[in-house]
Amino acid sequence: YNGGDLAAARAAQEQAVAALDVYLASNPAGDGPVERAVAMSDRAELLLESERHTEALAEQAMVVGIFEARVAQRPNDTAALQGLGHALTRQADMRYAVAGTWAESIGDLERAIDLFERIYTSDRGRIDYARDLSIALERLGDVLLQTNNVARARPLFDRAVGLRRERLARDPLNGEGLRDLAVGLERLGD
Fold this sequence. Notes:
Blueprint: H1 6-26, H2 32-49, H3 53-73, H4 78-99, H5 106-122, H6 127-146, H7 150-170, H8 175-189
Helix pairs in contact: 1-2, 2-3, 2-4, 3-4, 4-5, 4-6, 5-6, 6-7, 7-8
């Protein structure tokens, strides 16, 4: 995928999902369904990149369903909540690609923010939780900018930038954190 060979990447994803299916047939308990959902989500992203938008959205909707079931079984499992938040965020992109309108993405992003907020509130010391929340805030802010709702977008960008500044205060030389802050400030500038 990173090398630009989407066909080879898609073939590898198909093999990964097939291997997980074989594993799940003999080991139905455990985290196998979640691992399969992660592989399916990666495959859906490849479908999106290959301009197969409707297929990508259908695949990602199945992923969201798997994570929703996991959260229903384990409502306080932060890994399940985080997985659902990531799946919803990715689904928002796919909704836009299929519908051609940003409005379709708002509900998924709002729901992801609620999940990431819940996770972050449970442990404010976790940088990955703060990062997930800041990315989702930024994504919804981007969507709101595209729909000309600047008044609602601005506080989202402010909050995302604030979270990123807090992260850098704890780890000032973190390259990923510096890049995230730069992107957030650029969005805020927009």
